[in-house]
């Protein structure tokens, strides 16, 4: 069971702020005034906390209604097995939507240096995140895998949808002391990116490149990214032209947010890719989050 610790503020966190400032400058190289950039000013002035607060109520109503239908058969009547499966899936999606709202706050908290650390097994958490992502992308996950993802059954299921997971023995035994919510958000964004851009396959590899570090790499067989665009894909709202040909819903926020969160946790995300040859994203994180690890040049 995860050992939750009090939320703490990391005084040495400057990397995330510098990264965001650099991206802002790159997105506005002409130095135009706020009056000349009305769209950007609009989003800068939005109170995200207020929007999240307004969205929580309707989501809570949907979640409560689904629970009532599932748990109060005496009041609302019995359900067929198909109706139960549909409502369970709707309930999970509603809960994920609620989690996504809270995740929106994590980037801002990361810039301020706030982390809530606990002990967890990164391989197990990565499997859970993968199941959640597949469910979100309308890939039905067998209920028994959600309850207890046995290695053999999980491998068979994943191979059937073109996903392969390779984990080294050292990584299986690894334990992290990190911010688990941020870890889940980073890994989830990278998995979504790989699934969106792959043609047929995605390989996820988890290993320990050093005794105090963990590396998660995701290799897809998609269109790839020209080296001159490697920095661009980590900017907010940016999508590279050759990747835009792939049917993808979203606004290019995933990788930008993931990079900020990774640096907040003392880690880094890198890309190895050539146009037309797929892409490999590597997330490297220290197993233990320490203030000293954030004070990097």
Give structural notes:
The structure is a single chain. The protein has helices spanning 15-27, 38-45, 48-71, 73-76, 81-112, 122-136, 143-147, 151-160, 169-172, 180-197, 241-244, 254-264, 291-294, and strands at residues 8-9, 114-115, 117-120, 163-167, 176-179, 202-210, 213-220, 268-273, 279-286. By secondary structure, the chain is of the alpha+beta class. The strands form three sheets. The protein has a five-stranded mixed β-sheet. The protein is globular.
Describe the structure using short key phrases.
alpha+beta; two-stranded antiparallel sheet; globular; Heat Shock Protein 90; 297 residues; five-stranded mixed beta sheet; 51% helix
Summarize the structure.
By secondary structure, the chain is of the alpha+beta class. Helices cover 51% and strands 16% of the residues.
Number of individual domains: 2
CATH architecture assignment of the largest domain: 2-Layer Sandwich
Mean pLDDT, to the nearest integer, reads: 77
Question: Number of helix segments?
Answer: 13
Class by alpha and beta content: alpha+beta
- The global form is globular
Provide the spatial order of strands within the biggest beta sheet.
4-6-7-9-8
Order of helices and strands: EHHHHHEEHHHEHEHEEHHEEH
- Relevant CATH superfamily of the largest domain: Histidine kinase-like ATPase, C-terminal domain
Poorly predicted ranges (pLDDT <50, ≥5 residues)? Answer: 1-17, 32-42, 244-252, 292-297
Top CATH class of the largest domain: Alpha Beta
Strand content: 15-25%
Radius of gyration: 20 Å
Euclidean distance between termini CA atoms? 35 Å
Let me know the number of strands. Answer: 9
